[in-house]
Write a structure and sequence with these properties.
The structure holds two protein chains of two kinds. By secondary structure, chain A is an all-alpha fold. Helices cover 82% and strands 0% of the residues of chain A. Classes of the chains: A mainly alpha, B mainly alpha. Chains A and B meet through helix 1, helix 2, helix 3, helix 4 and helix 5 of A and helix 1, helix 2, helix 3, helix 4 and helix 5 of B.
Chain lengths: 123, 124
Amino acid sequence: MIAAIVIGLAAGVIAGLLGVGGGVVFVPGLVIFLGLSQHQAEATSLLAIVPVALVGALRQDRYGNVRRGDGLLLGGVSVAGAAGGVALANALSGKLLQVGFALLTLLIAAQLARRALAAPPER
Amino acid sequence: MVPDSAAHRSLRLLVIGTAAGLFSGLFGVGGGTVIVPLLILWLGYGEREATGTSLAAIVCVAAFATAVQAGYGNVRVLDGLLVGVPAIGGVLVGTWLQQRVHTRTIALLFAAVLVAGAVELLVR
């Protein structure tokens, strides 16, 4: 239970600080520290993302950073893709999914590092 | 912009939304990794607007994908709440910190942590 709370706090701080969604922390955290299977971890991560994204979106909206029409349209049209993605995930073995997720994580790490190194030293 | 830019815009949003949905459903992430750069590249968004709008879209994407995953019996509701609720506090702290600390070093450190996590998943 303490591990879960620590994972949650860490994911939230990283999300707020770096703009990287909680999923990239939730999924490995749930697998490595809470012993969930890759499929369970992905599904549970999605649930955990909802409140985080909601609070983040409301805050950003206050700063006028949300184009509401586009956001809703994006969310609406994503439904088919999301259903397809979930079906595909459940058709794949946990091992294969885990390897795919690890590669995705490496990609995000590279993107993050490149962005950090390319940015002007500090604001 | 060309005269048919409205149609182009809608088409681009459709492509971004579908790609983000697939990504989100397949990997259990929000899809911001797909949405943010594409909004900037294809629709000329600024970084803040892209992040804010992406978060709004993610609420819908993740909620829907969760419902579909629940149909497969994969959602562990208690664990989801145990990580999701503290994460709200974390986001508030993170956003506050962002205005005050140098994020560059943190980004690099976090990238290193991600690599370690990826290796752990690969050798499992």
